[in-house]
Every structure is written in C-alpha cells, then in structure tokens.
Design goal:
The chain has 9 helices and 15 strands. By secondary structure, it is an alpha/beta fold. GO terms for molecular function: prephenate dehydratase activity.
Length: 289
C-alpha cells in the first residue's frame, strides 16, 4: 500500500488524488499546509506528495513552484489534470430569502483558498460584492471554518465532497468563472511511478542563465528549436539571490532518455547555463470522467 501526502480531505487536491489513483489501496496523509505535504515525503512519512502546480485561470501556483525549486529536492514522477469545480457552501437556512430563494445579502464573509476565490470573481462581484473575502490554506479548511461558526453569516468556496464531509449545504453550484477550469497536479517522490502506463512523457528542467552572456536565453531556445523539440511551458521566476536574476522553468514534451534531449541540455550547459532536471515522467494530461 502506497502512502501519499495531500491537502485536506474534501479539497480539490483530495478529489484529484482519488480520481488519479482510482481503486488502488492508499494510505492518505492529510495536511493543512502545502509545506507539510512536501515535508511529509522529504521526511519519509509518505512515499509521494501531490502538488497542485498550475490552473487554467490563475496560471502557475507560485508558492508551490518555489517550494519545488528552493525548499526540497524531490523529483516529479507523474502529472495529470482534474477539473476545479467550485461551489458556494454554507447553511441553506441562513441564506434563505423569500419563497426559498437564496438571499446573498445575508452572507457577510466568503472563506476559501486564494486561488479558488480568484476562480470565482465574476460570481462574487455579481452576487456578493458586499461580502468580505478571507484566505485560508485550502478550500476544505474554509468549509470546516464555516461549519464551526453557525449563525455567523459565513460561506465557503469549495467542493461538494467537502460540503458532504462537513454536513453543509451547497448554496450555489459550479460558480467558477469559466467552464474549462482545470488544475494540473504533480506527483513527487523518490520512486518512479509505474502503476499506470502512458504514451506521453515530459521532462521538467530549471535553467539559470550566465550573468555575463548576452543572448543566452535566445541560445537556450535555439538549442531546442533546431532539434524540433517542443516546449509546452516556459516561465521565469526570481532566483531569490539577486534583484533581476531569474531562472527559467521549462517543460519539454519529451522523455529525458530520448536521443535528442541530452544533446540539447549539453549545448545549453556549454554556454555556461546551469541546468537542473526536476523530473522526467509520464503525463496523463487527458481528463476522463
């Protein structure tokens, strides 16, 4: 039985984890903070950690990227996507108006993870412009807080699973601003993931450019371009060592042991770039209901 660290029960991460592992027997280790999810695997408490890393609407989750790069050294072993379906959760009786309709004026505060709140801004602006928003560590944590504070006029944004777990009502369902709201998840750990097979592989690398080499980024991209190696993502993040100094997070649609990729990385290193391989792993990017 695998032991896997994940954000709290009822969070989107929890739903995504259960979707990905299906009927496998898993010992789930739930943690309130993403730092504890990472450290669970670092400290040998769990074999793997599940990390939400990118969202259709909000883009990269910077805090999680920084942990992956600066705080831990755990390779990526797989990736998949899962829909982030958010709902307004609370007590129906507290938000009920005339003839059973929802009276949003009775809700004074909305609690959730900042990414989930950002995914529902249009709904909040239209229906709850008066409500205070409060950020917490996960959507499941927000639902739990609402459960522990009856008659406060509070609601949470989260999953239907979290609502059921806390015995709360779904006041409004599917409130995200866009229908194609998907989150990309990473499985990180020291052991390769072999339980499922995929015909698609990716390699993620971190490239730090030499400071005194004009045109270095152009040469990095050229090393992939002339070999016709596709890059599915390139993003800059500060190295946290010097103002204006950045590293580049690059996802490559190719396994590391493919013929062309090692030579491309050698060419990049030859011009003075530092290259760190974050993982070469199967990609299960297609979501199937």
């Amino acid at each position: 039985m695998k032991t896997i660290a994940v954000l709290p029960a009822g969070s989107v991460s929890d739903e995504a984890a259960r979707y990905f592992f299906g009927g496998e027997q898993i010992d789930w280790k739930y943690h309130r903070l993403i730092s504890d999810v990472f450290l669970s695997t670092v400290n040998g408490i769990s074999e793997y950690s599940i990390i939400p890393i990118e969202n259709t609407i909000e883009g990269s989750v910077s805090l999680h990227m920084d942990w992956l790069v600066h705080e831990v050294d755990i390779p990526i072993q797989a990736e998949w996507v899962y829909p982030s379906i958010q709902n307004l959760i609370g007590r129906q009786a507290e938000a009920q108006g005339a003839e059973g309709a929802v009276d949003y004026s009775k809700i004074t505060k909305v609690i959730s993870h900042p990414v989930a709140i950002a995914q529902c801004l249009q709904f909040l602006r239209t229906n709850l412009p008066h409500a205070v928003t409060e950020h917490v560590s996960s959507t499941a944590e927000g639902v739990r807080i609402v459960q522990n504070n009856p008659n406060a006029g509070w609601a949470a944004i989260g999953t239907k699973t979290a609502a059921a777990n806390e015995k709360l009502d779904v006041i409004a369902s599917e409130i995200t601003d866009h229908d194609n709201n998907y989150t990309r998840f990473l499985l990180v750990g020291s052991e390769p993931y072999t339980a499922r097979q995929s015909d698609k592989f990716k390699t993620s690398i971190l490239v730090t450019l030499p400071e005194d080499y004009p045109g270095a980024l152009h040469q990095v991209l050229a090393a992939f371009a002339w070999r016709k190696i596709n890059l599915s993502r390139i993003e800059s993040r500060p190295t946290k060592k010097k103002l204006g100094n950045y590293y580049f997070f690059i996802d490559i649609d190719m396994a590391l042991d493919t013929v062309l990729l090692p030579s491309a990385l050698q060419e990049i290193e030859a011009i003075g770039c530092q290259v760190r391989v974050l993982g070469s792993y199967p990609s299960f990017i297609e979501f199937k209901k």
